């Protein structure tokens, strides 16, 4: 099957949907998504969107908070962009039908860790779901947006897919769409486009414990890397300090951990060890309101020191009516596991949550491949530096989706020459996929290796061991990939292996501890004059 369009968007989170709406004003759009249209990291985002709304707040304060959290690696120009354009994008979301929580007619602004002011616009504790609802309602009403569900992208189409162009240098390479697989019908689809947006979300499924949904297998990172796009700062994986801990979680190793929002600590939650002792005061004067990397390492240290499986988050000192008003979803989900959070402590453990690096883009979301854009978590705008400030992620997604849509209009209007003849996907001579046990075992092994050796605390020895294990799995996976017809499980395994390689390679290059990257061999942060991003250019497992 072949589809031709002006713009292809891969992914249906806030960035992909917002970009589709904006681009539909001047061009035809095909948007493909792996599962149902509302399954994305955005949908799981509880906390909210950070923006300067209150008159006592200021752009300067939000910028300062972001730069502090980023530990010296934020790109000041892009931080300025998201902070200063944020209020306008919040208004856009409201005009598109997003129902944010209000008090006395005004937006109810929450405060989260790392923020000096209350500035989190939210829809109780289901902000992402509400944003997704509003955007999907708008997107599905557009006649020139074709939304294709249950379809996974296989690889980007560039010169390397065209026989006479495959030796073109990376610096002159174009992206002309993608090959994709309909997971319901097993039909292979060739989608050619003048511009392509990666809005594929995160990479949490690389790890054993993650708050990300099952779709977060790093597809966009892996496809961009294989196509030769620049990738940056992939060592900075944010572990959310407080995911709900359950003994029964091991039953499905792909199942996401339920997130206990940052806002619960902003609400006054206290972290306690198994014996009930408060411990954050030993690690940071901001206690529970310290940035996530500090809180996650503190919990990790307490767990290792005491040999416990989890710590507790305590909000039993708060009024039950207030708890129910602010966190109805969290309350009900914990109650399903037998925990009444108004009376009992919540068992929590850190889980892989967000990737601060990604496909390197400029201020208009352009990657190093002509015609390829990236928005949202899959991109590296430089906003987050070495550690993301809470609730800046949805803000980044919508701000840079807007900027991508502005630039794409100019790009496709100036598009010169025809897209070359793209060959159909060739799977002749391959076998049917009857070795799923190999894929399941390899995926489980990748997750365990990454959790044990490339987690919250790292070392040269751990990274070296992880690199060797992942390389062996890479060789096995590529051999299986070449021998079998493509199907969803093999594609996702191939992508998490590629992303694991990228994360390890990036972590080995950073000879310091900074933000989310902490290594026992280099426990100190380098002076500012030695700072640089970790950029990978060549796919070489």
Structural description of this entry:
By secondary structure, the protein is α/β, with parallel strands linked by helices. It has helices spanning 14-23, 41-44, 59-69, 76-95, 127-139, 219-227, 262-266, 292-306, 320-326, 328-336, 393-413, 436-453, 460-483, 488-509; strands at 2-10, 29-32, 49-50, 102-103, 106-107, 109-110, 120-121, 145-148, 151-158, 175-182, 188-198, 231-232, 237-244, 270-272, 311-314, 346-355, 358-360, 372-374, 379-380, 535-536. Strands 1, 2, 8, 9, 10, 11 and 18 form a seven-stranded mixed beta sheet that branches. A four-stranded mixed beta sheet has the order 19-17-12-20, with helices on one face. The protein has a four-stranded antiparallel beta sheet with strand order 13-16-15-14, covered by helices on one side. The longest helix has 24 residues, at 460-483.
């Amino acid at each position: 099957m072949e589809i031709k369009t002006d713009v292809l968007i891969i992914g249906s989170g806030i960035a992909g949907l917002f970009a589709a709406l904006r681009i539909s004003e001047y061009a035809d759009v095909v948007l493909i998504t792996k599962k149902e249209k509302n399954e994305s990291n955005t949908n799981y985002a509880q906390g909210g969107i950070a923006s300067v709304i209150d008159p006592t707040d200021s752009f300067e304060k939000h910028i300062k908070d972001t730069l502090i959290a980023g530990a010296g690696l934020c790109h000041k120009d892009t931080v300025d962009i998201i902070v200063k354009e944020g209020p306008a994008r919040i208004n856009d979301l409201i005009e598109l039908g997003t129902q944010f929580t209000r008090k006395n007619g005004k937006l109810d602004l929450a405060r989260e860790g790392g923020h000096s002011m209350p500035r989190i616009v939210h829809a109780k504790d289901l902000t992402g779901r509400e944003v997704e609802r509003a955007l999907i309602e708008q997107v599905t009403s557009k006649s020139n947006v074709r939304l294709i569900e249950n379809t996974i992208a296989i690889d980007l189409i560039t010169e390397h897919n065209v026989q006479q162009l495959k030796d073109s240098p990376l610096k002159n390479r174009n992206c002309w769409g993608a090959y994709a697989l309909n997971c319901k019908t097993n039909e292979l689809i060739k989608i050619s486009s003048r511009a392509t947006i990666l809005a594929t979300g995160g990479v949490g499924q690389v790890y054993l414990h993650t708050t990300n949904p099952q779709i977060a297998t790093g597809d966009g990172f892996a496809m961009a890397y294989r196509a030769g796009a620049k990738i940056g700062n992939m060592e900075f994986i944010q572990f959310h300090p407080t995911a709900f801990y359950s003994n029964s979680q091991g039953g499905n190793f792909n199942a996401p951990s339920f997130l206990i929002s940052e806002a619960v600590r902003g609400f006054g939650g206290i972290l306690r060890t198994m014996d009930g002792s408060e411990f954050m005061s030993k690690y940071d004067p901001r206690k529970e309101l310290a940035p996530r990397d500090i809180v996650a390492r503190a919990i990790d240290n307490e767990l290792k020191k005491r040999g416990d499986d989890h710590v507790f988050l305590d909000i039993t000192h708060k009024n039950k009516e207030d708890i129910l008003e602010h966190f109805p979803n969290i309350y009900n989900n914990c109650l399903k596991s037998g925990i009444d959070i108004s009376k009992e402590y919540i068992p929590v453990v850190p889980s892989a949550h967000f990737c601060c690096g990604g496909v390197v883009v400029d201020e208009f979301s352009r990657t190093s491949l002509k015609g390829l854009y990236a928005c949202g978590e899959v991109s590296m705008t430089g906003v987050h530096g070495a550690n993301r400030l809470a609730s800046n992620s949805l803000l980044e997604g919508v701000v840079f989706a807007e900027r991508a849509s502005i630039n794409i209009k100019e790009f496709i209007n100036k598009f010169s020459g025809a897209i070359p003849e793209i060959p159909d996907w060739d799977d002749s001579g391959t076998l049917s996929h009857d070795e799923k046990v190999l894929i399941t075992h390899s995926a489980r092994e990748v997750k365990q290796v990454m959790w044990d050796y490339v987690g919250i605390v790292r070392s040269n020895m751990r990274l070296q061991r992880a690199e060797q294990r992942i390389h062996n799995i890479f060789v096995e996976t590529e051999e299986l990939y070449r021998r079998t017809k493509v199907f969803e499980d093999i594609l996702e395994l191939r992508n998490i292996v590629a992303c694991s390689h990228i994360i390890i390679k990036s972590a080995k290059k950073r000879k310091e501890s900074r933000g989310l990257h902490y290594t026992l061999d280099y426990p100190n942060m380098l002076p500012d004059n030695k700072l640089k991003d970790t950029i990978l250019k060549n796919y070489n497992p």
